[in-house]
Amino acid sequence: MVQMKMKYGIDLGTTNSAICRIENGEPTIIKTSRQKDILPSCVAFTKKQTVIVGDGAVDMLANDRRNAVKRGEKETTNIFIEFKRTMGLDTPYISSNAKRTFSSEELSAEVLKALKSLVLDDNINAAVITIPAKFKADQIAATKRAATLAGIEHSELLQEPIAAAMAYGFNSTKEDGVWLVFDFGGGTFDAALLKVEDGIMQVKDTEGDNYLGGKNLDYAIVDEIMIPRLQQQYSIDELLADEKKKDLLRDAIKTCSEVYKNELSFWPYYESPDEFKSIGIDDEGEDIIIDMKITQSELRPVLAPFFQKAINICKDLLKRNNLQGSDLDSLILIGGPTYSPILREMLKEQITPNVDTTVDPMTAVAKGAALYASGIDSEVKEEIKSGTIALDLSYKSSSVGTIECVSVKLLPDECTGTIPSKLFLELTRNGWSSGKIRIDEIGDVVECLLMEGKSNVFTIVAYDDKGTSIPCFPNEVNIMQGIVVGNDVLPYNIGVEVYDRSLDKDIFILLKGLEKNQPIPAIGVRNGLKTPKQLRPGMATDKMVIPVYQGEYSVEGTSAIYNDHVFNVSISGDDVPAFIPADSDLDITLKVDHSQQMIMEVTFPVIGEIIEKEVVIGQRSTGVDVFDLQNRLDEVKRRQASLQSN
After folding, report:
1. Do β-strands 177-184 and 189-197 pair in parallel, antiparallel, or remain unpaired?
2. pTM of the predicted model, to two decimals?
3. Is the domain of 75 the same as that of 98?
């Protein structure tokens, strides 16, 4: 079994998804069965209990919505879309055909499976999957679970704007400056501020809105343009007066509004295509057919408020970093809605004229994820074929220099064939060769000449002393020249809740090292805390709870319940080997990895022991948060007792 680099990058989007890998040094999108770069993130379950993902499911959804309007009621649907917006929540998606309920992560897993199936020549068990920059801990954990359900044993998560910036940097000649990634997707908006010096890219700050995206635009077109037009053409007042029927009509029209939105990004006006079908029956029994002409000028006042919200987020992001739009060298557009000339004009007027459109807004995230993946060691080891020489390779996957060293050594215990008494290796790339270098288990270093501004793929060939080639694995090295990407950063401050006696309330205290925008992986520490109660060994009823929270800026000392509760780390008497008195010292260390998964270590100096707990984050309830209610009740009771005593 030999370890190798990851190959695949996946953009798991609200509306559309894509998969990419490096081929011949270039990030290459894997086409769908309809020869498209993107796969709609739509999942359908048929009566035969088969699963359909992508364009076929979208076609079925449009037909379902039209039929619902005609019936005047919505049957249990078997087609689901935009479920990324409920990632991390316990929102149920009930399918009568499948005879079961699905979660957002299970539906996302079906999209991932469909993307994997597009790759016919490989079995994908490791990949980089992108997430919005402002995803919270429960949303991140749900994405990891979706990957596991889809058979991706090792998944690394990468923030979408970082992936986009990597794709942009790969093709750009700009090696210095300040970049702003403007990522307006189907369901989320992200902005990322990056500093680039000598090709080394570092994230400075991020901001966003997990509920602002193309979906908002679609329904705005429905409500403000299309329904008023239909009221002039058809008798639908009774239909609109019934809220349930009105919602059914809005959903059916939304399918058409998406077409208008997309087409009006490229044309000054758009008229209904002939393939638009009846979307229902009006109050007088007449078929309602979308037949209207909409212009860009009509669209402007409808879409501008949503675009303005995203622009204001960017303005605030720049302001808190003491920057102005004039300081930006590039504003990089990502996401389908960024094709809109209305948005582009607003950005040039309010942020910067340096709006860059050189990357494909629809595929940049997947391409950046693939570039990032090519530099990550996969935790999934591959079994090599019989008669193959196993190698251990060590090198930097990205470089701003023109020469990069690759350390190579033989792994005799992993080889599956006879090892020649003398073994030689040669690395080649487009006419360049390292020459044959003798190799053994001690190893050697090969200096590789890099082409500038390219992903350099070097083929590795092994030879015996007679010059006969022998299969080896890995058999290639990929080094991206021209840009080095820094790590993702924490989108929120991470801390814990403690009781402050002087304030008589539970407050948020920051774990030092886990501040917002701290590069990850990261480690946070807080010393000198106190145990609220005693812990007796073997007594499960003796329990201490450490609530973990995420918060925005200036959260230190605020009421913990006004921040975002992540998870409760619970330590009981069953966890400790010796008696710990109440009010004993304790220290907390929280480790956050690349994908923002967490492990907490609680140190009890009184017994010299460290208790380690994995932070396992489950689905967040869409109902009342009992934990928060209990905290509020406890705080009110303490304040009441304090008032009574005074």
Report:
1. antiparallel
2. 0.87
3. yes
Residues 105 and 241 in one domain: no
Say which amino acid occupies 292: M
- Exposed, middle or buried, 99 (CB in 10 Å: 0-12/13-18/19+)? exposed
Non-local CB neighbours of 312 within 8 Å, separated by 6+ positions? none
Burial of 588 (0-12, 13-18, 19+ CB in 10 A): buried
Q: What would the two tokens of residue 4 be?
A: 């190798």
Q: Are residues 220 and 334 in the same domain?
A: yes
Long-range contact set of residues 221-228: C-beta below 8 Å, sequence gap at least 24: 221/257, 221/260, 221/261, 221/294, 221/299, 221/302, 221/303, 222/250, 222/253, 222/254, 222/257, 223/250, 224/302, 225/294, 225/298, 225/299, 225/302, 226/253, 226/256, 226/257, 226/260, 226/290, 226/292, 227/253
CATH number, position 611: 2.60.34.10
The answer to whether residues 332 and 401 belong to one domain is no
Residues 433 and 474 in one domain: yes
Q: What is the mean pLDDT of residues 60-81?
A: 84
Quote the number of domains for the chain: 4
Q: Is the pLDDT of residue 68 over 90?
A: no
Say whether 294 sits in a helix, a strand or coil.
strand
Query: 492 with 552: CB under 8 angstroms?
Result: yes
Q: What is the CB neighbour count within 10 angstroms for residue 400?
A: 16
Does residue 515 contact residue 490 with C-beta atoms inside 8 Å?
A: yes
Q: Write down which residue in 483, 511, 540 finishes a domain.
A: 483
Q: How confident is the model at residue 558 (pLDDT cuts 50, 70, 90)?
A: confident
- The token pair at 46 is 């048929």
Domain shared by 177 and 323, yes or no = yes
**Helical ranges in 321-398 per DSSP H:** 341-350, 364-373
Residue 2 resides in a domain:
no
Read off the pLDDT of each residue in 144-152 and give the average, rounded to a whole number: 96
What DSSP state is assigned to residue 375?
T
- Same domain? For 470 and 395 the reply is yes
In a domain, 375, yes or no: yes
Q: Are 11 and 130 in contact (CB under 8 A)?
A: yes
Distance of CA 85 to the CA centre of its chain: 12
Residues 366 and 350 in one domain: no
Q: Helices 243-263 and 214-221, interaxial angle, to 10°?
A: 110
Q: Hey, which bits of 264-325 come out as E strands?
A: 269-271, 278-281, 287-289, 293-295
Query: Does residue 3 belong to any structural domain of this protein?
Result: no
Amino acid at 378: S
Domain with 534, as residue range(s), is 493-645
The sign one gets for the Cα dihedral 394, 396, 397, 401 is negative
Distance from CA of residue 359 to its chain's centroid? 19
